[in-house]
Structure formats: C-alpha cells, structure tokens
Amino acid sequence: xxxxxxxxxxxxxxxxxxxxxxxxxxxxxxxxxxxxxxxxxxxxxxxxxxxxxxxxxxxxxxxxxxxxxxxxxxxxxxxxxxxxxxxxxxxxxxxxxxxxxxxxxxxxxxxxxxxxxxxxxxxxxxxxxxxxxxxxxxxxxxxxxxxxxxxxxxxxxxxxxxxxxxxxxxxxxxxxxxxxxxxxxxxxxxxxxxxxxxxxxxxxxxxxxxxxxxxxxxxxxxxxxxxxxxxxxxxxxxxxxxxxxxxxxxxxxxxxxxxxxxxxxxxxxxxxxxxxxxxxxxxxxxxxxxxxxxxxxxxxxxxxxxxxxxxxxxxxxxxxxxxxxxxxxxxxxxxxxxxxxxxxxxxxxxxxxxxxxxxxxxxxxxxxxxxxxxxxxxxxxxxxxxxxxxxxxxxxxxxxxxxxxxxxxxxxxxxxxxxxxxxxxxxxxxxxxxxxxxxxxxxxxxxxxxxxxxxxxxxxxxxxxxxxxxxxxxxxxxxxxxxxxxxxxxxxxxxxxxxxxxxxxxxxxxxxxxxxxxxxxxxxxxxxxxxxxxxxxxxxxxxxxxxxxxxxxxxxxxxxxxxxxxxxxxxxxxxxxxx
Length: 579
Ligand code: SF4
Hints:
Layout: E1 2-5, H1 13-28, E2 33-36, H2 43-51, E3 54-57, E4 68-71, H3 78-86, E5 90-93, H4 97-111, E6 115-119, H5 125-134, E7 138-141, E8 155-160, H6 166-179, E9 182-185, H7 191-206, E10 209-213, H8 219-230, E11 235-238, H9 246-249, E12 254-259, H10 265-277, H11 285-298, H12 301-317, H13 324-344, H14 347-352, H15 354-362, H16 364-383, H17 387-402, H18 427-447, H19 454-478, H20 480-485, H21 491-495, H22 497-520, H23 532-546, H24 553-576
Parallel strand pairs: 1-12, 2-3, 2-4, 4-5, 6-7, 6-8, 8-9, 10-11, 10-12
The structure holds iron/sulfur cluster.
C-alpha cells in the first residue's frame, strides 16, 4: 500500500498558539488551571496536562474564584467573559486571532444595523461565541436550504465558522444575495482551513481511499471527511491509529492521510506508520531497505555508525594516522548513551515517537544490557589509551547516563526547578553536540602521539559541535510539540521555530565558509575542501525536513545522520587516494 500524507495535516498556527499559552499557564500560573472542554482531542495529552494540574471542566459553574481558565482557540461569548471576570476567574486568552477577527466583523456590521447570518454548527463552541457577539440579531444556519426558512430582514451580513466548508459557504452566499437586497458577504473561513480543504480535494483525486485523523467532535476534521467523500472515494475518520480498519484499508492500492487542525504530529505519524506496515503484497526491495534503515535507526546502531564516521573525518582533518580504536570507542559511547537516554525518556518519547517507545519497552532488557556493555566497553578500550583518556570517557559516560537522573532526590518542589541535567534550558540541544565533539575529536586528538596545534583542535572542535548541533536542533524542531507538552526547553521552544531555522541556516553558512576559507589560507589541505559536499548534504537535509518534504521520523533521522556517513566517506576516499 502506498501512503500519501497531506502537507497541511496537523496543528494549525491558531491551535499551536493556544497550546503555548496553555503550557505557559500550566508552568507559571498560581492556583488551579482549567480548560473548558479539552484543548485537543487526545487522551494522552489530556492526562499529561492533568498531571501538570490543568483539568478540563464541563460547566463554567465549576470554576472557583482565583482559578485560571484558558480560553480555547474557539473563543467564548462576551457575556460569559464578563461573568467569569466578575466571579474572580483569571482568564488566559487563547482565542485564535482569526476567530477574534470574526468577532470584530460581527460587531462592525451589528453597529451598521445588519442582522448576522452565521454559517456553522449551532452547538460548536466557536459558533456559540459568534452568536454571543451578534446578540439578539444573529441566526445560525448549516446549509444553503436553510436560507429559505430565514425571516425577512432589511440588512443581512453573512459570516461563517472559520472551519466551514468553502463550497457550502459560496452556495449560502448566492442564495442570501438572491433573497435579500442588502446582503454583505464576509468570507471568514481561515487561510489554514482553506489550504487544508484545497489539499484534501487534490489528494483525494489521486488516491483510492482517505484516512482523516482527528477528534470525532472536531468540525474541521468532519469537513475534511465530507470533502474526501465528495470525490467519490471512501473516507475513514479515526482518532488514533488503533481505530484503523487495516483489514479493509489493505484492499486499497493508495491511501491518502490528512488530519484536523488540532491533531498532534505524533498521532499522524503513528497512523502513517501503521498503514505502511500493513503490507498486503510481498515487500519490494525499497521497502525492505526502508525496514532495515528503520531498524538501524530505532536501535541507535545507525547514529553510532554516524559517530564512527565523524571520528574518521576528524582524524583525517587532523592529519592523524587512521586508528580504528577511536572509532570503536565513539560508536560504543554514542550507542550506549543514546540508548540509555531513550530508555529513561518516558513522557516525551510516548508523545514524540510512540512506536519507538513501544519497541524500547518490549526489548528493554536486551537494550539496557547492550547499552551498559557498550558503556563498559568504551571505558575498557579507553584504558588502552592511558589514564587521561580513561578519565575523560568515564566522565562522559557518567554525565550521559546521569542526564535524566534526579540529582537532588526527595519530594519535588517548585523552588528547585533544575533537578536533572535535562532540566537546564536548551540542554538537550547543546549537550549532545558537546559530547560528540569530545568523543569524536578531543579524545583522538589528546591521545595522539603527534603533538597537534591547539588552534587546529579548537577550530575543528567548533566545527564538529556545529555539525552535531545542526542534527540535534533539526530533530528538536521535529519533536517540538511533544517536548513542549512535557515542559522540555529545547532551542526551538526557547527561540521559536522560525528563529531556530534562521540559526540553522547561519550554522550551515559558517560551516561552508570554514571549509572554503581554511584550505585557502593553509589551515587545511586543499583536498579537505571536499568536506563542503557533506555540508551541502546537511543543508539539503535541513531544507527537506523543515519544509516537511520528509515527514516520516526514521527517514528524517537517517537522512540527517547520513551527513556523518558522508563526512566519513569523504575522509576514507581522501585517505585511500593518499591526498
Ligand atoms: S483553524 Fe484557523 S481560525 Fe481555527 S484556530 Fe486554526 S488558524 Fe485559527
């Protein structure tokens, strides 16, 4: 089965914004924090938010004075807002600015003497909010046919729920214009919805069936189902991968996947992966290669190979003789530390990569045993290099192993925020490159029998750090939703995706400049300018991942880790030709 994922699937910016406001309130607000209805339709996320003290209320009466209410992206009616304020409830306004814009249109036309016709679902929270702004001059309809039932009105203004069906909106507008002489039409369907609906129509034309992922009560998800069906193909609406009817879906050659505006990335990923795994025919060579790559990535063997390759590149850049021991140490170390941290990472792992977490839970014993054996192997091999290298690798293993360990112990309190190394803001994005630079460059350089110039080691240390930083930050951009929910402060969360992207572009530019300038001024040999190929590869990976050209987790990870293999290959070729 071939799976086509719509690029627009997943959180819209309005929902992302509300989530950020909610997470900020959960971390910093005094007293209880509530949402009226779930922020997003996912039980895992609701449980996670509950563990942070954020609970869902079904009635506004449940809110106590002094508690905080997160207003969801749908907004609330003005009278409810007033009432809550007068009762002493603190409001954190997550109303999407595009929903607020509809409120502004309603107020404007109400002031000009118009009656408001709102296209949408009567019971939807957003429509309830719009109706509140329209006061006693608003009426809700859900189809063009209902226009005929509307009473005579002197002046009519049409607005809609931001996630309404475009086609239906235009039908309603035509009928209203035909019925009322003074009829103003304001298209309030948001751009995100527009793009999502356009894309689902395009994808639906090229597939045999559609899977739409999103809450059963989510209006915009239901629209996507309707639109898919309008193209004459079956559409399956699921909330999670567990609801997929694989028996039926495997009958189709090509299946499209899209998702509603409040569907987290990891659920979409799970659906795509479950579909791709449900093969009916014998897997092709490409599929088998993908499975092998998936296995190597999932088990951290691939990233360990990357560390070995980077060590080869660093040895070549330092003009050191090829010494296999250094690469074995680097590979064992990276495998051990990455695996131990994956095993310790429960909450973020479950959200960002549930299938990998499942794999780690299933094979916990083997993975832990092999990781500990590799950690011991790292230290034993370093002992052959001397006491200094042994001390360095032991320190690195201990730091890597303790990254997620509570170093304080005892009950948790808000006064002590940083209890683990991983609690330090941006530590996840910065510690990994630091560790890699030490193990792939500093260790071989310090153990070398030939004295190497400190400035050369320093310059290459910075370049290695930047290369691995690119990898770490790119993967952190991919994991931003899950990391944000568990309160992890990675660089993309602290700086925002846009600024992180700019930082990564700047990092790629610095790396390129180094491999152009260093050979031309004699810091590196001319042939070593060939490492620019590896930097170009990193730049292309950056583009493909941030532009969502590659969405599958293991593919994005193997693509970016592949950069180190490219560096290693360049080093080997250079060594073999004796340049
Ligand atoms: S669907 Fe559109 S209007 Fe609704 S929250 Fe998202 S961006 Fe805002």
